[in-house]
Write a structure and sequence with these properties.
This protein is mostly helical and 375 residues long. The chain contains 16 helices and five strands. It folds into two domains: 229 residues, Citrate Synthase, domain 1; 97 residues, Cytochrome P450-Terp, domain 2 (Cytochrome p450-Terp, domain 2). The structure holds carboxymethyl coenzyme *A.
Amino acid sequence: MADLTVQRGLEDVVALESSLTFIDGKGGRLIYRGYDIRDLAAHSTFEEVAYLLWYGRLPTRAQLDELRHRLAALRALPPGLLQILDELPPDSSPMDVLRTAVSALALLEPAESQPGASSIGGALRLTAVLPSILGYIQRRRSSKLLPSIPPELSHAAYVLAALSDRPIDPLDEGALDVALILHADHELNASTFAARVTASTLSDLYSAITSAVGTLKGPLHGGANERVMELLDEIRTPDRAEEVVKARLARHERIMGFGHRVYKVEDPRATILRDWAHRVGTAKGDLSYFERLRKVEEVVHREKGLYPNVDLYSGAVYTLLGIPKDLFTPIFAVSRVAGWTAHVLEEYQDLRLIRPMANYVGPTDLSYVPIDARA
Ligand code: CMC
């Protein structure tokens, strides 16, 4: 209709009320259930954050222990799934395998995939099993078996153990844990929106997460950090950053890891990951990624006035942890599944079709309470 205004990309459209996550795009703040991401990244773990997203409050020590036990008990891959995955072409993209695996699980685990099923069980199962699927993908292409991994490991350590036989360095575990916390939710981003759209038709949780994985795969959403690493490969040394970046801008190419639909200042996740890229790089005696990225930041800000987003430093951190480039987006899914499932459960409570910005109705100034002091 001629007199209707079309909001391309649904930009600035407020589609629903949510009490999960608030993005303060002008102030550069990200809040999960009232808690500032900087506090969560500094003090909590991915498991605490997943609990916070699902249940709306930080867990007590006993609740956290119970969650970790439940996740540990849900990590195994069913034999039927292994058969399906073994049939897939060996050079399949890990995101395609992940999407297929989630979809196949729905058939193998019908209890959680009933239309409208809203139990937390499916959320726990998918969160527990995604790292095992990644481990299987990585082991299969290197012709190795997924080792038996001690269940008491943290979620971040389990991911590292699933991907590599290297002994787990506590700094690596801490870095990955923070990356998982930072990626766990982000309001109505495209993949979460896709999940909620699917759920809002009264479809099942596994279908919603299949939609989300397919949506995350796109380079404007989940794949940007991989492309940042390609840029760094081309730059080679910091002194070449200016020339390479300017040449790309002259060709009207986008510089990945910069700009954001909602943040008008620096993405707070980028600030935290920059610090971790420096810490991990220093510990490993390799600041080459960090130094190139700092230079790229300087040039992009000067030339375009753009700020870094979460993807600028995450690829460097993952590379330093020994994670291959094509698993960066699957790692994003390993974290974001907590947010996707929390959004789907919220959607089932109040079924409405939706999109882009949420009218946040939760608190924003809660003080982080250390786990041992919680009631
Ligand atoms: N490099 C160069 N120019 C850019 C960039 C960039 N990274 N981002 C935006 N611009 C320019 C764009 O060309 C346009 O300029 P003009 O008005 O002259 O045509 C202007 O800024 C506005 O861009 P837009 O595409 O209308 O803005 P958007 O809100 O639709 O884009 C974005 C958001 C993230 C898609 C975009 O900034 C982008 O493509 N960034 C690179 C990809 C990237 O890093 N993606 C990860 C996003 S963070 C992940 C997450 O939160 O889940």
